[in-house]
Design goal:
Layout lengths: L1 E6 L6 H20 L9 E6 L4 H15 L3 E4 L3 H13 L4 E3 L18 E3 L4 H15 L5 E6 L2 H16 L6 E5 L7 H9 L4 E5 L2 H13 L6 E3 L6 H6 L8 E4 L8 H14 L7 H20 L6 H9 L5 E2 L4 E2 L17 E6 L2 E4 L2 H6 L10
Parallel strand pairs: 1-2, 1-3, 3-4, 4-5, 6-7, 6-8, 8-9, 9-10
Antiparallel strand pairs: 10-13, 11-12, 13-14
Helix pairs in contact: 1-9, 1-10, 2-3, 4-5, 6-7
């Protein structure tokens, strides 16, 4: 049984792409150790999209048309995913997205017709969560927004503006920047001069590190918040620790009280060996994605045609006890996103480690989190 896998294994997004690969490899390894699917081993057919949309599309066409994989788990970058979606849709091939969070990934096609599913919190969930944290929990009214000029940054920025507007707020400053930007100190100082009480930044690891460094250099004392890539080890390392106290949305946070989660982290570290593992979230969600797809294959009795897998995922007959959470009916014919806002946490960098911001969240993390409305 051939499992297609597409993520950036080189280039600027290789940090979380390789973390996702390690999660997929571990899942395949453990599944094969207990017999695969009915004695058939799983084979991971991996492709490097280099975080480039055209490379991602070539990889998608190769896996679907040439390798004829049974299903595909893939994409870390929203723009890369969007370039390839029609390949899977046209050929009715099941795509499970474990990392990319851009809202458009699962909104491009109506769920009832779509062969695209996602096992990561989409940006509308993350943006709503971040705005709620700033405006409702912390009662801050003056927020500056920073976003890169990629499709990911654009989508996140639009989501943030929408949720701020729903709170009756407008950003005091919006800063756009290109990937690879060397410094944003002047822009942070400008936001500070505009009266910003907090900064919400939407970008990927290296650029979020640049913003964290700029915040420190500008002596901006307000909170810095961002979506899940703020948790990448790249952010801590490249900012030389300036990310201390930066907060981000997470689906999983290391938790010594959760035996299943800590066992997974230990197994993942053993599997990785000397390879860097920069994103627990990318690895864990991808691990769960492979296992969840196998659950769907068992439900279809081995039928890996897109329509059969789609019907199984939309009507899973048993909960899947994953390492991120237990997914109980994560999808339906009207909804191909597994996460709602009640299923994510606020984490922060403390002395180079990710921890829960709120102690109560750590206590709740072991409880089954069901999607809102189910």
């Amino acid at each position: 049984m051939k499992v297609g896998f597409i993520c950036p294994l080189s280039g600027g997004s290789g940090d979380f792409g390789n973390s996702a690969r390690l999660g997929a490899e571990l899942a395949v390894k453990e599944i094969n150790e207990v017999g695969g699917y009915m004695g058939r081993p799983l084979v991971l057919v991996a492709r490097d999209d280099q975080a480039k949309p055209d490379e991602g599309r070539r990889a998608a066409e190769d896996l679907v048309l040439n390798e004829k994989v049974d299903f595909t788990v893939g994409f870390c970058n929203t723009g890369v995913a969007l370039k390839s979606l029609d390949v899977f849709q046209t050929h009715q091939h099941l795509l499970m997205v474990p990392v990319a969070t851009g809202s458009a990934v699962t909104a491009t096609y109506a769920p009832q017709d779509s062969f695209v599913f996602r096992l990561s919190p989409r940006d509308t969930v993350q943006a709503d969560f971040l705005v709620h944290e700033v405006a409702q929990r912390r009662k801050l009214k003056r927020v500056a927004l920073f976003a890169d000029r990629t499709a990911y940054g654009e989508g996140g920025l639009n989501d943030l503006k929408q949720f701020l507007s729903a709170q009756g707020l407008q950003p005091v400053q919006i800063t756009r920047f290109d990937l690879g930007v060397a410094s944003l100190v002047d822009e942070v100082k400008s936001a500070q001069a505009a009266g910003a009480e907090a900064i919400i930044a939407y970008s990927v690891g290296p650029e979020l590190a640049t913003i964290a460094s700029a915040r420190q250099a500008a002596h901006f004392n307000g909170p810095l918040l961002g979506p899940w890539p703020m948790s990448l080890k790249t952010v801590w390392d490249k900012s030389n620790g300036a990310a201390e106290g930066a907060m981000m949305v997470q689906s999983i946070v290391p938790d010594l009280s959760n035996e299943r989660r800590m066992s997974f982290i230990a197994r993942l570290k053993r599997h990785a060996g000397d390879q860097p593992m920069t994103s627990l979230m990318a690895a864990a969600q991808t691990y769960d994605a492979v296992h969840l797809m196998l659950r769907a294959v068992f439900q279809t009795k081995g039928d890996t045609k897109g329509r059969a897998l789609k019907a199984a995922l939309e009507n899973l007959d048993q909960p899947y006890p994953g390492v991120v959470t237990t997914h109980d009916r994560p999808f339906s014919a009207q909804d191909h996103d597994a996460f709602t806002m009640n299923m994510v946490w606020l984490a922060t960098w403390r002395n180079g480690a990710l921890q829960f911001v709120y102690a109560d969240d750590a206590k709740k993390a072991s409880v089954i989190r069901r999607k809102a409305g189910t």
